[in-house]
Structure formats: structure tokens, C-alpha cells
Design goal:
This protein is globular. The chain is α+β, with helices and mostly antiparallel strands. The protein has two domains: 183 residues, Bira Bifunctional Protein, Domain 2 (BirA Bifunctional Protein, domain 2); 50 residues, SH3 type barrels (Roll). The strands form two sheets. The protein has a seven-stranded mixed sheet, sandwiched between helices. A five-stranded antiparallel sheet has the order 11-10-9-8-12. It is built from five helices and twelve strands.
């Protein structure tokens, strides 16, 4: 993918190995090496960043990237929007997986009830950049023992090697096409809820304040997860981690 380009990006930086594409993007911004929108792609990460304090296994074969987007007029729900773009891209390219492909709030894509893709977004306010990290298990043959039961790759599920460049192109084609509507406040919550992993399930949500249990009612138009609590009240939550989920 050394010659990869996309109209969304002024520059694309490709590396064989990095500690983290996010850390490299931050470095380029700090050093003023890169300007405008740019994309960092690495064939491998040795210290891939997951949500919270989690690491993300990033061996050769997968898609490991960070998009640095300048001056976006959004501050929330970027992972939700990106999850929709990725889900649409994978369903368009591989129609047979649609019934098994779901979006897990707030930042994961699941295939056959196993984690396929993670999304991270952060805002570097002083430099006016949003960093959007995507890790997608596209062509991974074997996972570390500790995640072998919970992770999945496209190539293992489909039984074929997939084309990473084509997937990345399709993701950012969708991003570019749908972003104006998103900026106007029109998050496609209907699409999200139609493909939600959690909607209709009993979940436990861990927040900075407490844990909440109840029936997931999907997301609202702002991207908040809605939980019907034991009291019967439907409460939206804009941040947190879903610790567990079971069929209701």
C-alpha cells in the first residue's frame, strides 16, 4: 500500500512498523511535519492502543491506521459515525457477512459475535486536529492465546485473503460522502440500530460514576446509548464501557 492515496488526505505516510500510528500522527503534528488532513498506515504496530488501558494486537496483515483530520467541526459521536462507515464498507465489499456483522457501542465492529475492528477518536484541541484510529483484523491467521476466543479476522471467516487497500478506500469514500450530513447533526441512528450488537439485550454499562444495568434500547440521534433501567426510565449515556451483555 505504499502508493495508496485518497482524496480526503493531503498526505499519506506508510510505515513497515511503528509503535503506534496514533503516536506517530501526534509526533508529526507536534513537529509541524505534516499539515492538512493526513493518514498514517503501518503494516505492524508493536504498541497498538486500545480503549482505556488496553493494548491492541497489531501483527502484519491487518489494517492499522490513524487519520489526522484538521479543523473538523465535531466533538462527539465520531466513533459512532465511523463505525457506520466501516460497517457499510464491509457489507458492500463482502455481502455474505452482513447478517453476522454488528456494531458495538461505542467503538467496535463485531463479526460472528467476536471483535473484528476497533475505533478510537481523540481531539488535539490546541492544534485543531481530530485523530481517528482504526484497527481492523483483515488478514490475520492466528491471534495471541489471550484473545484467540474473542477476536476474529475477515480472512479466517471468509476463507480468502482480502485486499486491505480496497477496504481502506471504501471506508473513507463512505466517510467523505456521509460526513456533511453528520456535521449537520444527522447521525444515521436508524442504520446503527438496525445493525446494533447490543440493542434488545440486557447490558451492564460501566461509567466514571457507577455501573448501570438494564435493557439496551439502541442509540439516540446524538449517539448516546439508551438503557431502560429497572425503574422503567430510559436513560441516555454518552460515555462508558459495556462490560457484559446477554439476550433478554
Amino acid at each position: 500500500m505504499k502508493d495508496f492515496h485518497h482524496p480526503l488526505f493531503d498526505e499519506v505516510y506508510h510505515y513497515e512498523k511503528l509503535i503506534s500510528t496514533s503516536k506517530q500522527a501526534t509526533k508529526l503534528i507536534k513537529n509541524e511535519t505534516a499539515q492538512g488532513n493526513f493518514l498514517i498506515i503501518s503494516n505492524q504496530q508493536t504498541g497498538g492502543i486500545g480503549r482505556g488501558k488496553n493494548n491492541w494486537s497489531s501483527p502484519p496483515g491487518g489494517i492499522w491506521l490513524t487519520a489526522a483530520l484538521y479543523g473538523l467541526s465535531v466533538s462527539s459521536s465520531l466513533t459512532i459515525f465511523t463505525g457506520i462507515c466501516i460497517h457499510k464498507a464491509l457489507c458492500d465489499l463482502f455481502p455474505k457477512i452482513e447478517t453476522d456483522l454488528n456494531i458495538k457501542w461505542p467503538n467496535d465492529i463485531y463479526l460472528n459475535d467476536k471483535k473484528l475492528c476497533g475505533i478510537l477518536a481523540s481531539h488535539n484541541q490546541s492544534n485543531k486536529y481530530h485523530l481517528l484510529g482504526i484497527g481492523l483484523n483483515s488478514n490475520i491467521d492466528k491471534f495471541p492465546d489471550e484473545i484467540s476466543e474473542t477476536a476474529i479476522s475477515l480472512s479466517n471467516f471468509l476463507g480468502i485473503e482480502v485486499e486491505n487497500e480496497l477496504i481502506i478506500t471504501k471506508i473513507f469514500d463512505n466517510f467523505t460522502e456521509d460526513f456533511p450530513e453528520f456535521v449537520e447533526g444527522n447521525l444515521n441512528s436508524k442504520y446503527y440500530n438496525n445493525h446494533s450488537l447490543l440493542k434488545g439485550k440486557e447490558i451492564i454499562l460501566d461509567t466514571d460514576f457507577d455501573q448501570y444495568a438494564g435493557l439496551c434500547k439502541g442509540i439516540n440521534k446524538s449517539g448516546a446509548i439508551q438503557i431502560e433501567l429497572k425503574s422503567g426510565m430510559i436513560q441516555p449515556f454518552y460515555a462508558g464501557s459495556v462490560m457484559d451483555w446477554t439476550d433478554s
